[in-house]
Amino acid sequence: MSPPLLQMPGGPELFIVGLILVIGLVAFVAGLAATYWVYSDAKQRGNDNAVLWGVLTLLGFFIGLVPGVLVVVIYLAVGRE
Fold it and tell me: Cα(31)–Cα(63) distance, rounded to whole angstroms?
């Protein structure tokens, strides 16, 4: 027996749209959390470019998940000196 949501007209489409919204919200929150972490880590380490790293991370996650993760990896390799 399938769930009641999938038995009503438009139910599967509503489920898919809801799933896409939840995944998007999780990605948005993860991007904000990564931005905050990069900024606070850079500031704690006395990096003069902490604001720049934060803005670059935010822009990277605004463009997409892969560029955002790439900026975080670059920060880990270069920015934590």
Answer: 11
* Ordered DSSP codes for 13-71: HHHHHHHHHHHHHHHHHHHHHHHHHHHHHHHHTT-TTHHHHHHHHHHHHHH-HHHHHHH
pTM of the shown model:
0.77
> What element of type H or E holds 49?
none
Residues whose CB falls within 8 Å of the CB of residue 49, separated by 6 or more in sequence, listed in order: 42, 79
Q: Tell me the C-alpha distance between 79 and 21, whole Å.
A: 33
pLDDT tens-place string over residues 6-44: 666 777 788 888 899 999 999 999 999 999 999 999 999
What would the two tokens of residue 80 be?
A: 């934590």
